[in-house]
Amino acid sequence: MKTYKDALEYGKQRLLECEIEDANLDAWLLLEYVSGISRSWYFVHEDEEISENDIEEYQILIEQRGKHIPLQQLTKEAYFYGMKFFVNENVLIPRQDTEVLVEQVLSLSKEKENLKLLDMCTGSGCILLALLANLKQASGTGVDLSEKALEVAQRNSKELGIEVSWVQSDLFDKVSGSYDIIVSNPPYIETSVIEGLMDEVKLYEPRMALDGTEDGLFFYREITMQAGKYLKNNGILAFEIGYNQGKAVSEFMKENGYKEVQVLQDLAGLDRVVTGRIEKEEQHV
């Protein structure tokens, strides 16, 4: 294995042998990551010799990917809503489907300024940071039970230059203040389903970010019941949901006094987001 072309062919073949779904793409992305080359550069220089250090690092990464360790955990980066985020084994890898949640919250926030946002179960912080990057003079609080997840979120906010208040808390236990918007992508996979997920997810992503308990709805019930105490009048609660949870979560919201409850679909036509607005009676002193 001497040239860039040899390396890429090795990577493709090895990942195919390991039954990696996107073997060709992942082999290229890891080569790009290791050597810092672009596709256009590669097509002109594919027969040039690759350095021994790059070969060694590339082989190690290919073997790790062959064990189904997620690509993003190997490169320590993931892209979400056009922004680059640091990720590791302590956070859920941002998914494109989640961008539907960001789009909907931004749509509901049009022409509003100085909004206060809270992101419950923030993980890497990608949802909150994407929202703050696209809202005028908004402020945000990110909440997670995992200290290690919050370390990742803090790193992302620092690297992106977006100021956020991060709180380690079991749901709302240590939350204070009132908010215009509460957004959440909580654990929502049924416990019994997790073992049937692809290895990249069930073996390498944090179980606490996946497991929604027996029916997958525990966190939706808890957050919906408590969120009203922390939302301002006409405040918005917005969830990412699993494809089969739209009816149940929208019912929870209606039962807890939310109006204008709607279920939105992702690009595949599957239920992905539920939003609602809460109206509070004015308190006269």
TrEMBL record:
InterPro entries: DNA_methylase_N6_adenine_CS, HemK-like, N5-glutamine_MTase, PrmC_N, RF_methyltr_PrmC, SAM-dependent_MTases_sf, Small_mtfrase_dom
Domain Release factor glutamine methyltransferase N-terminal per the UniProt entry, residue ranges: 6-75
Catalysed reactions listed for this entry: L-glutaminyl-[peptide chain release factor] + S-adenosyl-L-methionine = N(5)-methyl-L-glutaminyl-[peptide chain release factor] + S-adenosyl-L-homocysteine + H(+)
E.C. numbers: 2.1.1.297
GO biological process: methylation
Keywords: Methyltransferase, S-adenosyl-L-methionine, Transferase
Record-linked CDD domains: AdoMet_MTases
Keyword Methyltransferase listed: yes
Methyltransferase small domain location: 99-191
PANTHER family according to UniProt: HEMK METHYLTRANSFERASE (PTHR18895), MTRF1L RELEASE FACTOR GLUTAMINE METHYLTRANSFERASE (PTHR18895:SF74)
Function per UniProt: Methylates the class 1 translation termination release factors RF1/PrfA and RF2/PrfB on the glutamine residue of the universally conserved GGQ motif.
Protein name: Release factor glutamine methyltransferase
Origin species: Blautia hansenii DSM 20583
